[in-house]
Amino acid sequence: MSLKTLFSPQLLKKILLGSLFEFGPIVIFLASFHYLHIYRATLVLMVVTIISTVLTYRIQKRLPYLALYVAFITIIFGYMTISLREPRFIQMRDTLYDITFALTLIGGLIANVSFLKFAFNSVLPATDRAWTRFTYAWIFFFVVNAILNEYVRRTMSLHDWFDFKSTMVIVTLIFGITTLVLFYEKPHLPQKES
Q: What is the pLDDT of residue 62?
């Protein structure tokens, strides 16, 4: 089953736009590392993340809590990286990001609140069962990604870590598309009375 048969063109456009704002800053960061030093690339990441957050707010017309959190930790860890001249802080940002989201999603399951639904239902309306499946899948992904990030950060060079990050952008996109194809269910719209 293809994405075109699952989603309308408008919905696909929203998903692609959301992905651009989500992955755009990290792709620009990874690309700029090859041309700039780690500290300038980190500054680029900070600026592009802020721009992405503002654009997300303007398009969604509501506070993008996820984007605000990402911007907050990017600015904090980016500032520490640049001011202390220590690249490990920007690397640790990714571990914190993944663990925070995994714990948030686990907390949502315990409290019977779907944070993914809260964050993305306006972009991707789905059934409650689909949101629960998405939640379990992304908890698994975030935990594995955090463990891998820490392993690579602690045992390999900065260049190896950037190669790992580049690979993980592609893996994340593939994982996201796979979970959509496997778990997405359109919500049933109430029938209009005639």
A: 72
Q: How far apart are CA 1 and CA 155, in angstroms?
A: 40
Domain assignment of residue 189, yes or no:
no
DSSP category for residue 190: P
- What are the CB-based long-range contacts (under 8 Å, 24+) for 158-164? 158/38, 158/87, 158/91, 161/91, 162/30, 162/33
* Residue pair 170/177 in contact by the 8 Å Cβ criterion: no
Q: Would residue 57 count as lying in a domain? A: yes
Count of domains forming the chain: 1
- Phi first, then psi, for residue 21 (nearest 5°) are -70, -30
For the segment 122-137, what is each residue's pLDDT rounded down to a tens digit? 777 889 999 999 999 9
Domain presence at residue 192: no
169-179 residue pLDDT tens:
999 989 998 99
Task: Round to whole Å and give the CA distance between 53 and 43.
Answer: 16
Quote the pTM value: 0.82
Instruction: Provide the domain limits for residue 172.
Output: 3-183
157 assigned to some structural domain: yes
Query: Tokens standing for 56?
Result: 């997300």
Nearest to 144, CA basis, from 166, 172, 114: 172
